[in-house]
Amino acid sequence: MKKAFVQLHIAVFLAGFTGILGKLIDLNEGLLVWYRLFIASVTMWILFFFTKKLQRISLKDILKLAGIGFLAALHWVTFYGSIKYANVSVGLVCFSSVGFFTALLEPLLFRTRIKWIEVLLGLMVIAGIYIIFSFDPQYKTGIILGVVSAVLIAIVIILLKRFVNRINPETLLTYQLSGGLVALSAFMPFYMQQFPTNYIFPNLDDWMWLLVLGWLCSVIAFQFSVYSLKKLSAFTVNLTFNLEPVYGIILAFIVYKENQLLSKWFFVGFAIIALSLVIHVFILWKEERKRTAYAIIDSIPSKNN
After folding, report:
1. Do 261 and 139 contact (CB within 8 A), yes or no?
2. What is the pTM of this model?
3. pLDDT tens digits for 110-146?
4. Tally of structural domains, the chain
5. Is residue 304 in some structural domain?
6. Which of 274, 233, 301 has the alpha carbon at shortest distance from 1?
7. Is residue 215, in this structure, part of any structural domain at all?
């Protein structure tokens, strides 16, 4: 149990570290994502094929996962675009709005019940982002890209829920990343026409960080998160992943001294977002206690038995 908890926090820390790498790698956001997908998908095919973790799935499922993979690729392009046009902290603050868009879009896409408390907490996050948007105009392009990124990953999360019960995580992620790589490869000529650059092939430093991004922050982080899901409750995993933007922002403060570059309005907006996360954690904790209490009651034999 302790090992799983440590691995879960490593996975979340690595996920938060991707923002730092987005700033370290000099490639533009489109090429950065293409190389990340290439490294991660090739590694996963080799690793999961030889460990016999890939299952056979239908062509229909492959095409659907490829489409979801393309949306995930666009999420990463806009996420790293947000970081490059603004900074790591702004990109991660925008990423924290994923919960709001998930709560809002899932009922619209699949006609499920709206969780109003999550919508209200999400509106707090949007209010925090709006404060930053209004008082820090130099970050507007980055914030817009960051919000688009959050919308895209929310859609990806919602769509993937339809597959998790019948396709194992290794197969799911391998086909998703591979589909994203193929789709992004087809899209890249148009992208490069709109955003031309002479820097196409990474230098030695960029290759080093790309390997960290593809292996540690993608393959290893995925393996650790899957392992932790098997040993820990979904509540613990969801709770811990709420820390991802926090880890990333703290790292940005340490590595890039971004706390010295941000205005007081960023911290006002971030404080509102942090408060919404704390309230969400408290609600999740209460729900978990209630479920535990019901489980204990149900396990007690009745007198009639």
Report:
1. no
2. 0.87
3. 877 887 887 888 888 889 898 988 877 888 999 999 9
4. 1
5. no
6. 233
7. yes
